[in-house]
Amino acid sequence: MALEAGPNFDPKQFAFDETLADAIYWTDERLSGGSTPEAFGANNSGTGVGGSTLHWGAFVPRADARDLRLKSESGQGSDWPLVLSDLVPFYERVEAFIGVSGPAAYPWDAGRRYPLPPVPRNGPAQIMAMACGRQALRATDAPAAVVSRPFTAEGAPARNACINCGFCHQGCRNGAKTSMDVTYLPLAVAHGAEIRPESVVHGLERGADGRISAVVYRAGGVDRRQRCRAVFLCAGAVETPRLLLNLGLANGSDQVGRNYMGHVATQVWGRFPDAVRMNRGYPSSLISEDMLRPADADFAGGYLMQSLGVEPLTFANSVARGRGLWGPALTAYLDRYEHLAGIGINGETLPSEANRLTLSDETDALGLRKARIDFGYGPNEARLNAHATRVMTDLWEAAGAQDIWVLERVAHTLGTCRMGRDGDDSVVDPYGRSFAIDNLWISDGSTFPSSLAANPALTIMALALRSAEAFLAA
């Protein structure tokens, strides 16, 4: 049985309209602080049966082997308690089941094969490809969890091919974009699982043996109690540690909430002479991994680059916040929307004791203390960001962009319940099992010991599949 805080949407409820997308975003208040405070809500959190995959960008690069061994390689960051060969079989199984579209040959991994051909490149991707060619950088069609042709995985419903509408972040009407409600959850239901939507967990009861014996949740304004033999907590790197800290559970290592990480996700925007129409097509249809370890790097780790297409309202919010344009100046800039295109990064953030989730004195409607997340770039992130900004600006200049500007931003929520081999400095083992409570498992981005440079969703799915097998074998 699965308990989901949000509703169970019918995909037909999703619309080609940004103003109607708030229902799939987790907008409960979180307090954000630190020197580089992260914006929460539509940027990185989802609600509903399917969770954040209802609105995610479906950009699914794999982790790089070097990122899993960053501490050994550079002396900075943290090593994972597993290696890439542990993950590859699960990456392949996830990609085959959810229907990942990608290039026939992946420049940075000769042996990799994707189950579906790539989705068409949109306007920004075509510009980025041209710019990378001029700068002698490799780029290719992005691995995307979007089916480029009709697709059916065994045990899951049939899905229609992507229609290139561009509204991936607002919920996919025809199921072309992978989300859990059209992939793994129907498979689970077919095997007898029950999913209870609008059920907000706020308590975990323990028996005399210290193990979790029941889950307490609120549904329809009434508190209910569900007995259980084991619990998988999969609420993300904010809500998972918030619940554990509120309940005083699984924190014998004092690591719950520590080492919060958000990716460096700076973007560079420019105006082009010809119409780009960035709102059409899959938003991030080109990738470059050439900067995973730049030859001239003065930092540990590296970053991916991707093309960007953003719908008008979301883009207007970014322009207002990032460029400081308001009123007539903002509307005048947005009048050029069809000629604008962006390029962005997903960059390594090192775990740091200074970045931490704690509980504020404010409480929510259930009486739980709200999360306060303090986050800031360290010297390594600042140097990586400066390098990436320079590279992206050079690319856009090579492509002929005018009026180039930089949007500083942070993406994703990671860390806070890190995995490791020792319960003295970790919350869960390499399979996601709590060191403190042996029938409590955590399966989300909170278990990441380091951020990696890759976007996290595919790795979260692979780890979830790996955890599920370990649980069934236990």
UniProtKB/TrEMBL annotation:
Pfam families: GMC_oxred_C, GMC_oxred_N. It comes from the Bacteria. Keywords: FAD, Flavoprotein, Oxidoreductase. Residues 159-264 form the Glucose-methanol-choline oxidoreductase N-terminal domain. InterPro entries: FAD/NAD-bd_sf, GMC_OxRdtase_N, GMC_OxRtase_C. Residues 351-464 form the Glucose-methanol-choline oxidoreductase C-terminal domain. Gene3D superfamilies: FAD/NAD(P)-binding domain. The keyword DNA-binding does not apply. SUPFAM superfamilies: FAD-linked reductases, C-terminal domain, FAD/NAD(P)-binding domain. Belongs to the GMC oxidoreductase family. This is Fructose dehydrogenase large subunit.
